[in-house]
Amino acid sequence: MKGQEWYQASDVAEEYDEKRFSRGGQLIDRREKRAVLEALGPVEDKRVLEIACGTGRFTVMLADRGADIVGLDISSAMLQEGREKARDAGVDDHLEFMRGDAARLPFPDDHFDAVFAMRFFHLADTPAKFLSEMARVSKNQVFFDTFNDTSTRSIYNWLLPMGSRLYSDDEVRDLVTGANLRLAGAEHDFVLPYGLYRKLPDWLANSLRSADTSLGRTRVGDALASVSYWDARV
Asked: Where is the Methyltransferase domain (predicted)?
């Protein structure tokens, strides 16, 4: 995994949400949460696993909606932030945070109704292995996002400290097929890269987002989108 040591640092975990989801990053947070909720649907009493749960943004949100959820991450520091977030939200008694390796999930086959991962596959060195493990422990649904190789992100990707793995549409479809999954749906979004939004005040980011969304609805929107959300079935 790219950045494995970086993500395990305490100072990185403590500042993670503030650096990425404040200012214009708030709209990214809202969009990603909407993508997860729309994909998973009603989650009450569903058994759900989040891979690379980080500080628990999605884990806590789904626990609050009644999911029986486990958040797995390799970073103890990130998990500690998640536990504090769960306590603050009053849901710490009905979710579980677990340290573990996504390449060797400590669960039996078909253990969860749904398994998802957000902001994970751009760091994956062996994406086929990770996706196969997600498919193995899910009895119904696998949901994940990718950063795309035809997007504006490719222009500045080499400047990023860890870079990102960028995917073509065909590569993702091959990964899904290789994991014995069936693609049920895909959404493509954010013509402008995340990094630009995070540098702007929220009001300006929202204005820019309106233009971004309009462009995304055009014929070239999907081809230029920097992020894709993939919904697959076992």
From this structure: 48-140
